[in-house]
């Protein structure tokens, strides 16, 4: 993964990425959430599904993300709540239905920095696109979708074609290390997933996002 040296945001009065304003007070309790990185390509290639949130959204409007959202109270508070939320959000936002939660492969867990107002404790899962299905965004929360290689998504972001936020960029950088879906899933299955909580450091007019283990964290 690239260093946080690439991750500098303008910070007039600590304004950061969409929906990620700086919080100068006590940390907000993160809300439990889940997201699905949908894959296609099998043993030949690796593409991921990105959906664009409606520009009207108050939080991260217009940003391209992996399908996902907050855990509902009815989904409980145990480990199964995250997979239930992941499958529900995938169905609602992208029109993709996965019946068996056991087909989800746990990949990562990211906690929004304590220095940010709106916080989530998000569990990311990998899932292959079921045979015979194609994504269809809901037109409300999400208004577009694209299949992209990880490197293609990063290049589109650098070119200003799509807007990405820090966690999505970092996941795409990690996914770009794999050539096929099969290779990625073989790596991810049985892997010990540890939570990652970036830190925001304000330096004058710039907010830098640092990852654990990086200098200054």
Can you summarize this structure?
The protein is built from 4 helices and 11 strands. The protein has 217 residues and is α+β, with helices and mostly antiparallel strands. It has a single domain (27-195), classed as Nucleoside Triphosphate Pyrophosphohydrolase.
Q: Could you name the CATH homologous superfamily?
A: Nucleoside Triphosphate Pyrophosphohydrolase
What count of domains describes the coordinates?
1
Count the helices. How many? 4
For the report, how would you describe the main beta sheet?
Answer: 8 strands, mixed
Helix content: 10-25%
Q: Find the structural class using helix and strand composition.
A: alpha+beta
Number of strands: 11
The fold-level CATH name is Nucleoside Triphosphate Pyrophosphohydrolase
Strand content bin? 25-35%
Outline:
globular
Cα-based radius of gyration, to the nearest Å: 17 Å
Q: Give the low-confidence spans.
A: 1-6, 8-19
- CATH architecture descriptor: Alpha-Beta Complex
What's the CATH class label? Alpha Beta
* Intertermini distance: 16 Å
Secondary-structure element string:
EEEEEHEEEHHHEEE
Average pLDDT figure = 88
């Amino acid at each position: 993964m690239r260093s946080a040296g690439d991750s500098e945001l303008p910070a007039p009065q600590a304004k950061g990425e969409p929906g990620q304003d700086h919080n100068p007070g006590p940390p907000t309790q993160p809300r439990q959430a889940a997201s699905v990185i949908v894959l296609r390509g099998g043993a030949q290639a690796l593409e991921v599904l990105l959906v664009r949130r409606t520009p009207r959204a108050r939080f991260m409007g217009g940003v391209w993300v992996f399908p996902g959202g907050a855990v509902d109270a009815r989904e409980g508070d145990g480990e199964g709540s995250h997979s239930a939320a992941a499958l529900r959000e995938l169905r609602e936002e992208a029109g993709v239905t996965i019946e068996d939660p056991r087909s989800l492969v746990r990949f990562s867990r990211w906690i929004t920095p304590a220095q940010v107002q709106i916080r989530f404790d998000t569990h990311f899962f990998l899932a292959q696109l079921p045979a015979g299905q194609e994504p269809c965004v809901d037109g409300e929360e999400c208004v577009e979708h694209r299949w992209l290689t990880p490197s293609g998504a990063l290049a589109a972001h650098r070119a200003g074609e799509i807007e990405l936020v820090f966690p999505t960029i970092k996941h795409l950088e990690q996914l770009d290390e794999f050539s096929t879906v099969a290779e990625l899933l073989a790596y991810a299955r049985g892997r010990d997933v540890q939570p990652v909580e970036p830190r925001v450091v304000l330096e004058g007019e710039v907010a830098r996002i640092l990852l654990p283990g990086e200098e200054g964290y």
